[in-house]
Amino acid sequence: MYEIKVPPLRERKKDLSLLAERILIRLSQQHNRPLSIAPEVVEMFKRYHWPGNIRELEAVLGRAVLQAGMSELIGPMHLPETLRFPLSDEPEKPGVISPGPLVEMERQLIMEMAIHCGGNVTQMAGMLGIGRTTLWRKMKEFNISAKDFKRLN
Questions:
Q1: Model pTM?
Q2: One domain, residues 77 and 112
Q3: Which domain holds residue 24?
Q4: Where do the DSSP E strands lie in 15-132?
Q5: Which of 112, 26, 110, 37 is nearest to 67 (CA)?
Q6: pLDDT digits (tens, 9 = 90+) for 20-73
């Protein structure tokens, strides 16, 4: 008898984009339309701790396709909040900010504001305390599009 050990997704971060693409091919065929994932979604997948297995990834993508409606691009706003705002495995201590590259923290804050403000750049800039032009420049630098966060009415 042979034992095959398949490591959990959290130990296979390098494989996530390939696995997601394979699942999307199947979902594209089921929904009769081409589907793709925004680069920031792949980054969110890599930061998430994936307590489940590949079925969790399939469920997340299946739900995201439905959330996207007729859009062919799956963006951050189509993901569940647990993926957009993952909790740390360690309990947070009050007043302690987890260290990370400042650029990544800035990008994440802009993404969170985009979600919170539904892509309204004027409102985002006001909440961040920066000018609209500065925010547009930073969004371009981070490849973040305000229209990806517009609320569906």
A1: 0.56
A2: no
A3: 12-84
A4: 36-37, 73-74
A5: 37
A6: 999 999 999 998 999 999 999 998 898 888 877 788 898 889 989 888 888 889
